[in-house]
């Protein structure tokens, strides 16, 4: 499977996703809130955050002119000291306005809390994909993971309501199964 082949989440494509991940992939609520409810302790570990020029496919997705700046943020979400989710957010610098002035300085605070607390943001339909070791983000995604899987299944959405859309993708690490059982 192409590691960057994002697909709409439909009844047909759901058959390609492991059954135990369905509820995680289709949930349209806040993943942060869901994890907080399931964990004794929840934390965010910042892997990296940098400002850089958008790649052409990112410019198209985020409605940016070519080579415009964005913030590329990568984190792992931990549940009871186990990494359970790798999340990557692309935030156009132009999206950082009065309402979102702190998006470029979230540190180890969950971005999901900020996004889902804003009633003016609308979420696009969820897309999913499987990421394998050929994807340049796979190494960061699997950092601190004790058992590296062949692939990670994830979802992404765009959030509209800022000056430019914000993209959040979330990939479920093997530890997610530890909190499901």
Please describe the structure with a list of short key phrases separated by commas or semicolons.
alpha+beta; Chorismate lyase; single chain; 7 helices; eight-stranded antiparallel beta sheet
What is the multimeric organization of the chains shown? single chain
The major beta sheet can be summarized as:
8 strands, antiparallel
Taking all Cα atoms into account, the compactness measure Rg is: 16 Å
Strand proportion: 25-35%
The overall pLDDT average reads 87
CATH superfamily: Chorismate lyase-like
Architecture (CATH level 2) name: 3-Layer(aba) Sandwich
Taken in chain order, the helices and strands follow as EHHHEHEEHEEHEEH
- CATH domain class name: Alpha Beta
**How many separate structural domains?**
1
Helix content: 10-25%
Strands, count: 8
Which fold name corresponds to the CATH topology?
Chorismate lyase
Low-confidence stretches: none
Structural class: alpha+beta
Count helical runs. 7
> Distance N terminus to C terminus?
28 Å
What best-fitting shape do the alpha-carbon axes yield? globular
Q: Would you kindly provide a brief summary of this structure?
A:
By secondary structure, the chain is α+β, with helices and mostly antiparallel strands. Helices cover about 20% and strands about 35% of the residues.
């Amino acid at each position: 499977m192409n590691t960057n082949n994002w697909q709409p989440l439909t009844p047909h494509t759901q058959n390609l996703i492991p059954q135990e991940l369905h509820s995680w992939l289709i949930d349209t609520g806040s993943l942060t809130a869901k994890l907080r409810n399931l964990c004794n302790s929840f934390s965010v570990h910042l892997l990296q955050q940098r400002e850089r020029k958008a790649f052409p496919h990112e410019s198209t997705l985020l409605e940016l002119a070519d080579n415009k700046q964005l913030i590329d943020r990568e984190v792992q979400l931990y549940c009871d000291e186990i990494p359970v989710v790798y999340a990557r957010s692309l935030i156009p610098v132009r999206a950082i306005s009065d309402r979102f002035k702190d998006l470029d300085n979230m540190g180890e605070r969950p971005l999901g809390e900020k996004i889902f607390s804003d009633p003016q943001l609308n979420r696009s339909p969820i897309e999913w994909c499987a990421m394998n070791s050929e994807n340049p983000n796979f190494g960061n995604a699997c950092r601190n993971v004790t058992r590296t899987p062949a692939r990670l299944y994830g979802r992404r959405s765009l959030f509209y309501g800022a000056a430019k859309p914000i993209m959040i993708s979330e990939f479920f690490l093997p530890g997610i199964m530890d909190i499901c059982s």
